[in-house]
Batch of 2 targets.
Target 1
Amino acid sequence: MSQIKQEWKQKALEATYRYYDLGLSTSRDSGDVSVRDPETGLIYIDPRPNANFKIVPNWRSITIDDIVVIDIDGNILEGGATGDKKPTIEVPMHLAIYRARPETGCIVHSHALYTGVFAATGEDIPAALLETVLNAGGEIRCAEYGPVSSQLLGDNIVKALGKDRNAALLRQHGAVYIGKDIDTAFMCAEYTERSAHVALLARAAGMKLIPMPTTKEELFDPSIFDELDVI
Ligand SMILES: [Zn+2]
């Protein structure tokens, strides 16, 4: 019996639309999203364009029939409803992250504005606000450059994420966010984009960021430790 679930294709599609609606994709097929069903381990991922299939004008143009289903080894279990679709060209990076961080249930790869400034200059994004620590795990490291679609790009991103970060920059390219589920990954993406914006505004105004406390004990009163979900 097939382990492929229509419900998870729908989740992948909705995550793709959400991603575009948040301004995390510049145009056409820039960036991509994938989700992993924890029950089966199958990955539902955006398709790559081909000669007969263009993602125009943007990710809002795809349908549930375009979602590709793969396993952790990259085998295509279903190439969309027509069977001829391949996963996004950044599939080596998605697989490298799922392998290195098995708790991951969703990966969002963005080409967005404010994180793009840091990616373009190869700088880490400082932990400017409490929410950066809460969602991304601390400052966001910029990975070494890796060619688009390469295993090296995936390896460099895994290194930048380490064991304790949920966001990383792809040098001169974009950013990647991970979460245990779709909402967590998107929360990390939205807050990181905001953190990059805040850091840039502070610099532009000639203001200096001050060091962020890093331990749970410094950040929160112990009485609410049990209620913390994200750190
Ligand atoms: Zn990209």
Target 2
Amino acid sequence: MKQAIELFVEEARGVSIRDAAAMLGLHIVGSCAEHPQPCPQCGGIDCFAFNTKKNKWNCRAGSVGGNDAIGMAAHVLDLDVKKRPELLEACAAVLGTAIPVDDGETHEERAARKERLEKRRLENAARAAAQAKDAASFREREQARARGIFEYASASWRRTAVDAYLCRRLKVGSLSGVGAGLRVRISPAETYWHGKDAFGRPADHHSGPAMIGAFEDADRQIIGCHITWIDLSNSPKFRPNLGNDEKCRVLPSKKMRGSKKHGLIPVVGNRDSRRWIVAEGIETVFAVAYSESFRADTLYAAAGDQSNLAGPANKKGRFKHPTLKRTDRNGRERAVMVPAPFPDPERLEDAFPIDGHVRECILLGEWDSEHVATAAAMARAKKRIELLLPDCLTALAWPPEGYGDFCDLVSGWRQSA
Ligand SMILES: [Zn+2]
């Protein structure tokens, strides 16, 4: 009997993300590899996605993800795989079969099953090893490309599109005071790759000036880059309209290449500084740097996005959103779950790196997404720094009511809503 259960689990481990998604009734849209959608468990807009090519899934709301179908099923169905019965339930869900029960099998049947089990186990191990190798070499190639993009860009940003872009975003005449401290670079004609050409190669969708930031890891090695395409004629954001993708979603005018997690984009100043100010976005932290006249004792840096600013949440601390509700697959109304305001103690390193010499760290909030989840993420970001650096004075700063972020505040643009 034990063997039958083991074979059942091994079989479930062999199920691809695509097959599991179909079994779980998730949305599989067109022939694309990436399938974003609301999380069946956490709700949200497009916060859950699985990728059939990379055989991966992830939920930004629950800050979980991975490359196994069982884990995905467990998250979607709210099962705890550390509990044996719930693990088996998740396996049953991806296989679409019932959990096996003892049916008094013969010796021959048992031997055949043992053989199948061993074969399955070997296949799964070989597949996992091949996937890990592919992922590692893909990551290395992407990191090398990202380094190349940053190194090829110019550090002489004065009187370029980057100079004009930052001035216009802040509605200021000049960036006097920043001196040589600006760490982002200018690429006069950066290619925006999107889609495929007639030969199946990546297509050159757009080319234009771009601001390039580097993601540095804990050892100050460049592991990724952040690209912001600029269009000085397109007010108020001064970024190009790049049209829509095949699913009619607006193409983003910012992209990240290589690795972002474990990285930090220096925007102004020196990493040896004991005072750090960190925001999600380059423009936000730049606005604060400008407003305090680019303090010489400070590094102004960006984390790239909220998850890299805040880090993964402690799974045990998920809480019900006070007002937001969603309808689950069985038509029942349930509260939307919000990730915890404190970090996963085992994954404190899984966000931007903070150097041991930092003694003051200010994290900048912004209201560009749902407020309760944003407030929880920022509380988590602060707690993470406090746990990593108990001697560092850590604080959160929020833009005043009516302003989305510090960039809006400095440029004096008040939201109409
Ligand atoms: Zn989720």
